[in-house]
């Protein structure tokens, strides 16, 4: 199974990408419904998790429909296995093989390896050839050429973020009005797509030729490697002269030394009016693990939240994906009726929608007459997950209140007696872990409390859970009650 999987993945991503990221992927174990794969480093794990997990899952599911889930583990025995520790010392940091040279790259800029734009068979031809003709000096994490403004679906949930992103891409280095621009949202709602759309647009323009797009993890890895190799100075030198810095998944930036470096870079760029764009899964003030100086600089710009796309947007995303797929295979078609059904039922994120779509077109190739019932069967894990995840804060409050024998009114009241404070904190914690709501939003729903109160509650309960097994069981029970209530 694993060999068939590897061959398929290689065919889909191309041998260069495969060698860079999947060369050291191994099979760890297979149970009835869960496949576990392992990689040597945390960096690779999150890289693959963030960018390829859906694709990997779809391939496995196509091989064996019993498989529901794929997990990536880090196979190093000790320290590297814990994702929450400080930044790992350089020798543990993975150094993926750079993709083999192609005509348009990679080149060396200073000491930074440049990566070619990832080969993407589904890329619209006109755009990718335009880019290949005049590629700007781009380095950092690889860009996906499908992630452009053209392929980004606009709607009420992302209109403001999109407008800001476009302004930056069009106005070039002079768009200091949004500096830094900070985009945040739950997972799979289009942050990476939007950031790369800016990068892809800027790379092709003459106004901001020197663009750096990096995930925070890639930044850490690059600096850790440079420090190990006594090369940090050259790296910093080469980052001085850029026009646009884009950092994705900011919540992963860790480690004192690295944050310090990042802080210098940020100050230097902002002070010389160079554009900075950052994305994270939470608002700047919620990035607790960040150096306070970095956090405050990030708060000095504009923060925009993206929300869950509505039905029309989801339908449109599926339509566009189909169009793209049809460029490769004109015979491919999926009736609107089915797309609409999927858009209605897979409601959490662009990522799940993408997974659903991949599965659909794959199935379609040997089951040309897909019925709605069959689609439901195939997507049961996504649809089910979607339903279960639409937990309401009101239900959490009700269930927690009942469990601790207090009233819901008391839970959201100002009372601070112990019997109420603890259940209140638990309810806040569950609201944060079971719903996509932000800290400020949860604060509002708990009697207009400040977001820092919620933050404090979540941290407190997390701490308690790790040392108090009785409480952790209690919370598991509450989660079950809430999920059952929702089933
Ligand atoms: P995030 O970085 O917020 O986790 P991504 O940008 O990786 O989310 O989006 C996940 C998938 O959903 C990607 O394939 C992306 O192209 C797609 N997607 C999300 N939002 C949109 C949108 N508004 N228009 C088109 N595709 C979208
Ligand atoms: Mg992302």
TrEMBL record:
<dbReference type="Pfam" id="PF00308">
    <property type="entry name" value="Bac_DnaA"/>
</dbReference>
<dbReference type="InterPro" id="IPR024633">
    <property type="entry name" value="DnaA_N_dom"/>
</dbReference>
<keyword id="KW-0547">Nucleotide-binding</keyword>
<feature type="region of interest" description="Domain IV, binds dsDNA">
    <location>
        <begin position="365"/>
        <end position="487"/>
    </location>
</feature>
<feature type="domain" description="Chromosomal replication initiator DnaA C-terminal">
    <location>
        <begin position="392"/>
        <end position="461"/>
    </location>
</feature>
<protein>
    <recommendedName>
        <fullName>Chromosomal replication initiator protein DnaA</fullName>
    </recommendedName>
</protein>
<feature type="binding site">
    <location>
        <position position="191"/>
    </location>
    <ligand>
        <name>ATP</name>
    </ligand>
</feature>
<dbReference type="Pfam" id="PF08299">
    <property type="entry name" value="Bac_DnaA_C"/>
</dbReference>
<comment type="function">
    <text>Plays an essential role in the initiation and regulation of chromosomal replication. ATP-DnaA binds to the origin of replication (oriC) to initiate formation of the DNA replication initiation complex once per cell cycle. Binds the DnaA box (a 9 base pair repeat at the origin) and separates the double-stranded (ds)DNA. Forms a right-handed helical filament on oriC DNA; dsDNA binds to the exterior of the filament while single-stranded (ss)DNA is stabiized in the filament's interior.</text>
</comment>
<keyword id="KW-0446">Lipid-binding</keyword>
<dbReference type="InterPro" id="IPR010921">
    <property type="entry name" value="Trp_repressor/repl_initiator"/>
</dbReference>
<dbReference type="InterPro" id="IPR003593">
    <property type="entry name" value="AAA+_ATPase"/>
</dbReference>
<comment type="subunit">
    <text>Oligomerizes as a right-handed, spiral filament on DNA at oriC.</text>
</comment>
<keyword id="KW-0238">DNA-binding</keyword>
<dbReference type="InterPro" id="IPR038454">
    <property type="entry name" value="DnaA_N_sf"/>
</dbReference>
<keyword id="KW-0963">Cytoplasm</keyword>
<dbReference type="InterPro" id="IPR027417">
    <property type="entry name" value="P-loop_NTPase"/>
</dbReference>
<keyword id="KW-0067">ATP-binding</keyword>
<comment type="similarity">
    <text>Belongs to the DnaA family.</text>
</comment>
<feature type="domain" description="AAA+ ATPase">
    <location>
        <begin position="177"/>
        <end position="305"/>
    </location>
</feature>
<dbReference type="InterPro" id="IPR013317">
    <property type="entry name" value="DnaA_dom"/>
</dbReference>
<feature type="region of interest" description="Domain I, interacts with DnaA modulators">
    <location>
        <begin position="1"/>
        <end position="90"/>
    </location>
</feature>
<dbReference type="InterPro" id="IPR001957">
    <property type="entry name" value="Chromosome_initiator_DnaA"/>
</dbReference>
<keyword id="KW-0235">DNA replication</keyword>
<feature type="binding site">
    <location>
        <position position="188"/>
    </location>
    <ligand>
        <name>ATP</name>
    </ligand>
</feature>
<feature type="binding site">
    <location>
        <position position="192"/>
    </location>
    <ligand>
        <name>ATP</name>
    </ligand>
</feature>
<dbReference type="Pfam" id="PF11638">
    <property type="entry name" value="DnaA_N"/>
</dbReference>
<dbReference type="InterPro" id="IPR020591">
    <property type="entry name" value="Chromosome_initiator_DnaA-like"/>
</dbReference>
<dbReference type="InterPro" id="IPR018312">
    <property type="entry name" value="Chromosome_initiator_DnaA_CS"/>
</dbReference>
<feature type="binding site">
    <location>
        <position position="190"/>
    </location>
    <ligand>
        <name>ATP</name>
    </ligand>
</feature>
<dbReference type="InterPro" id="IPR013159">
    <property type="entry name" value="DnaA_C"/>
</dbReference>
């Amino acid at each position: 199974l694993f060999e068939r999987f590897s061959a398929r993945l290689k065919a889909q991503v191309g041998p260069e990408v495969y060698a860079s990221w999947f060369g050291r992927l191994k099979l760890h174990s297979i149970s009835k419904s869960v496949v576990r794969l392992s990689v040597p480093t945390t960096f690779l794990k999150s890289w693959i998790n963030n960018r390829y997990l859906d694709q990997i899952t779809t391939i496995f599911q196509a091989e064996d429909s019993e498989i529901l889930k794929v997990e990536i583990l880090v196979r190093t025995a000790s320290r590297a296995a814990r994702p929450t520790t400080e930044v790992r010392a350089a020798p543990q940091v993975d150094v993926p093989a750079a993709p083999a040279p192609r005509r348009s790259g990679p080149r060396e800029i200073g000491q930074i390896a440049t990566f070619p734009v990832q080969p993407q068979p589904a890329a619209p031809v006109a755009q990718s050839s335009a880019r290949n003709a005049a590629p700007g000096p781009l380095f950092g994490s690889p860009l996906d050429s499908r992630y452009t403004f053209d392929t980004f679906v606009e709607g009420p949930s992302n209109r403001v973020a999109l407008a800001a992103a476009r302004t930056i891409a069009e106005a070039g280095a002079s768009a200091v009005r949004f500096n830094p621009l900070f985009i945040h949202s739950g997972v799979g709602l289009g942050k990476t797509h939007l950031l790369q759309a800016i990068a892809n647009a800027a790379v092709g323009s003459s106004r901001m030729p020197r663009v750096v797009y990096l995930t925070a993890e890639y930044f850490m890895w690059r600096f850790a490697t440079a420090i190990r190799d006594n090369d940090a100075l050259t790296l910093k030198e080469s980052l001085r002269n850029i026009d646009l810095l884009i950092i994705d998944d900011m919540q992963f930036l860790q480690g004192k030394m690295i944050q310090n470096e990042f802080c210098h870079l940020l100050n230097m760029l902002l002070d010389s009016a160079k554009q900075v764009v950052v994305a994270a899964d939470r608002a700047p003030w919620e990035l607790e693990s960040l150096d306070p100086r970095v956090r405050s600089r990030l708060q000095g710009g504009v923060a925009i939240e993206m929300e869950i796309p509505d039905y029309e947007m989801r339908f449109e995303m599926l339509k566009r994906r189909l169009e793209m797929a049809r460029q490769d295979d004109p015979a491919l078609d999926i009736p609107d009726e089915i797309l609409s059904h999927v858009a209605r039922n897979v409601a959490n994120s662009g990522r799940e929608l993408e997974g659903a779509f991949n599965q659909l077109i794959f199935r379609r190739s040997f089951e040309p007459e897909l019925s709605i019932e069959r689609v439901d069967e195939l997507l049961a894990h996504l649809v089910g997950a979607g339903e279960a995840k639409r937990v309401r804060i009101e239900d959490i409050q009700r269930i927690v209140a009942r469990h601790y024998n207090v009233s819901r009114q008391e839970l959201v009241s100002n009372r601070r007696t112990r019997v109420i404070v603890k259940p209140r904190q638990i309810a806040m914690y569950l609201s944060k872990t079971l719903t996509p709501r932000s800290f400020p939003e949860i604060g509002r729903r708990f009697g207009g409390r400040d977001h820092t109160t919620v933050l404090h509650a979540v941290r407190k309960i997390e701490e308690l859970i790790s040392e108090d097994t009785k409480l952790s069981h209690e919370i598991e029970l509450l989660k079950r009650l809430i999920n059952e209530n929702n089933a």
